[in-house]
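Researcher: Please translate sequence to structure tokens.
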Amino acid sequence: MPRRHPKGVRLLVRTTTDQSLKVTRFGELKIRQSAGRRSPATRNRALVRVEYASVGVTDVMAARGDYHLQPVPGFVTGYDFVGIVESLPPGSLSGLRVGQRVAGVLPAMGAHATRLAVRPDILVPVPSALHAASAATILLDAVTAMHALRLANLERGDSVLIQGAGGAFGSWAVQFGLLAGLCVYGTASNRSASHATSLGADCYDYTHGDWKEQLLSAASGGVDAVIDHTGDRELPAVVREGGSIVRIAFGGQSGRQRRATVHGSVSTLLRSRGNPREVLCSLPLALRTKPRFLRSLLQEAMTQAAEGSVRPPEPERISFEDSLQCFAQLAQLPAGRKAVLAMPDHPRP
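Model: Translation complete:
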């Protein structure tokens, strides 16, 4: 990616052994050093040397202060990671071993660091057929897509509309929907439509004012479910009676997305018994309440990717030192690519 610093954002760098990417104040990212020594795993924690960690839209929102789960600065960005187990707690029954490559999704941000102390039960082995960088493109987006489709409660032969079908999340939802035997429709921009179509979605340009009418005609009166990240209140018009709308996000202009999320979440909960019913899909909440279930989804997603049943995005490897440029240029990545940070002590292939 070309170097270009976003307005009002600075990157402060210190040479270190162990490092993490911290939002010291909204709009400012700092590569922070630790004590520079390898600490043993704390009680009930495994120590993982991170090789790659993905960067997504949520990270960018959080860094600028527009993410409702990170309302104050002073946190490390990143939800998911791939790395090598350096130590395990005594008597660990996880089945993992030191030196093994593993992946994990955290229930709260903090993955953009060279080493992590985490519960062993959130870690899953990375299949040998997957390169570490490719595995890092799968985690959060794929698990969220699988979870959202399950919340939609669909059966083989049902139809689903995926909003943003060519994006990081939508691409996974399209593929998992097709694997489940669903009829998959999608919305996409001109930039990402060809990618969504190549995955098998029947796509509509959401910038066209009549796309909902086109969908209703193609879907014989409506779809059985919608997976939505826009907060569009007119979506019930395209859902059949007894169907559902799964909300994973609520759109909103830059600087107002936190407010849009809070308002949208409350509205969704109030409509949970409506027709169509609305369901809130919050992966951080699910990771706290159903960790084993989400861990099984992560393992399933990586296994399917290793077997070739689904196609992960191409990793766009960015050195950790260039993380600011990565955050600034994320929106310019071509459809079908995913930004992953290569940690300083991991040689880039």
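Researcher: Any highlights?
Model: The CA atoms of residues 142 and 189 lie 21 Å apart.
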